[in-house]
Amino acid sequence: MSQTDWRKSVVYQIYPKSFNDTTGNGQGDLNGIIDKLDYLAYLGVDYIWLTPIYPSPMNDNGYDISDYYQINEQFGTLDDFKKLLETAHQYGLKVMLDIVFNHTSTDHTWFQQALADPESPYRDYYFFRKGRNGGPPTNWQSKFGGNAWQYEPNSGEYYLHLFDVSQADLNWENEHVRQSLYDIVKYWMSYGVDGFRFDVINLISKDRFEDSDAIGKEYYTDGPRVHDFIHEMNRETFGDREMMTVGEMSSTTIDHCIRYTQPERQELNSVFNFHHLKVDYAEGEKWTESQLDFHKLKEILIEWQLGIYEGGGWNAIFWCNHDQPRIVSRFGDDSTEAMRQRSAKMLAIVLHMLQGTPYIFQGEEIGMTNPHFDKLSQYRDVESLNAYDSLQEAGKTEPEIMRILAQKSRDNARTPMQWDDSAQAGFTEGEPWIEVSDNYKEINVQQAMNDEQSVLQTYRKLIQLRHNYDVVTYGNIEPLYMAHDQLFIYRRNDEHNSWLIIANFSNEAVAIPEDLDTTGQTVIENEPDLLAEGKIPAYGAIVIDQ
Ligand code: GLC
């Protein structure tokens, strides 16, 4: 691929803990990833992104880093990592690392030194503040529940943690902090990594600590110096290299994302936002049982597609990651095998025909579903366990809470990758750290590779289409029939092609709008002769070259 062609690439996200275990300890490892690189090459992706693999107490599965310069023993050694990088490159796969710079683990030596000596220069690496009226400095809420300030008895001060109490927020106002972080980026670049995903990077600029009418978001989301900091990091580290960079942006805006990604601003290549996934949150609240608001989904997707395109920015596009329930169980239908397959393919077609860089989360490409856990003991995730407590305090019954967790928990994405129909889905020879979904005998990679009609084959074809047709990458987007209650219809256009995409998000056949011209060459569809009856079947999807 040439210098600028990163825009045509597709990224595959690996959650190493749940990918492939070669030691029998029930947790995935780097050697396990190496063993599956041939599969990823077969799938045809360009990059793999590994969620954090550094030493960590694993309270938040690695997003609580205690040493940025080493590999977590659970996953392997630095030599294993070098081998992974080398082997991936031999397969033509590039490797992106996940970097968590909004916070460190409280086990990190900086934090430990800050605790040990209130006069230590490391104290200012974090946000230690005096309390107010016998309570915390502000009323901000942690994203994982409870107040965002933790009392520290030795000094009598509180420290800020926007996430778990073991994830202390770093003070980017301190220049030593920033330089230390840039050194980490340069260190991993020196191994030859090809890109980075920056965790919640739009939360790094905070300089006012006041009570909030909401949960504090307005003080730290896209904060006052965030663009300066990211620009500085770009200039001091990856800016002049061919490096794929994506920032995870929490509760951000289109305007900010344009600024994060316009090439001339020299910040990042692309951004993740989450607005399109908050369309099954009742009144904005995640921990509720709720249905997809289809109109809202379309409106948000289109608003972002048009906004970022017109502003000259760049989107990362995705349905799934390690924090989101499985898309086929969420916006599709996993109640029967036929509908699972068809709706997983439909969702893939809709997403991969959008503008931006697509991300595939491990297992999505074979249509893995939520595991439908029904007992608290099956859950591992810190956020889900906190949510259980809060829901209980709010008076919800046990069955209600179990239904909410089964719909919303991050563990839905974290069950082991389903490789084959042998014990534990071929993920481990031991006891997996989290249960394997019980449908692994039907849904697994081996089955999908042997079945020409599998969800996997749709993903392979979509990746090839992106590589082969510029309209998918560079074409504009034209929304059509936005008011339709079941169909998502849009067009992608460039000077050579005009592709019409029609997708049925409902579980019944729907008539094609009378004035819609559907003539042309089929590029891809999720059932043979999809429109033969003049209708589009339940969860049908087609792309037509006109
Ligand atoms: C991001 C990660 C998530 C983690 C959080 C705190 O949202 O994707 O897994 O818990 O940041 O680091």
Walk me through what this model shows.
- The protein is of the alpha/beta class and 546 residues long.
- It has 17 helices and 20 strands.
- The protein has helices at 30-35, 37-43, 78-90, 109-116, 175-190, 217-220, 226-236, 254-261, 294-311, 327-330, 337-352, 382-393, 398-408, 411-414, 445-450, 455-468, 470-474; strands at residues 11-14, 47-50, 94-99, 103-105, 128-129, 149-152, 157-160, 167-169, 195-198, 244-248, 270-272, 316-317, 357-361, 476-480, 487-493, 498-504, 510-511, 521-525, 535-536, 541-545.
- The strands form 5 sheets. An 8-stranded parallel sheet has the order 11-10-9-3-2-1-13-12, covered by helices on one side.
- Helix 8 (254-261) links the parallel strand 10 and strand 11 (270-272).
- The longest helix has 18 residues, at 294-311.
- The two termini are 28 Å apart.
- The relative contact order is 0.10.
- Alpha-D-glucopyranose (GLC) binds at residues 60, 63, 100, 163, 199-200, 248, 322-323.
Main attributes of the structure:
single chain; 546 residues; alpha/beta; eight-stranded parallel beta sheet; five-stranded antiparallel beta sheet; 30% helix; 15% strand; binds alpha-D-glucopyranose
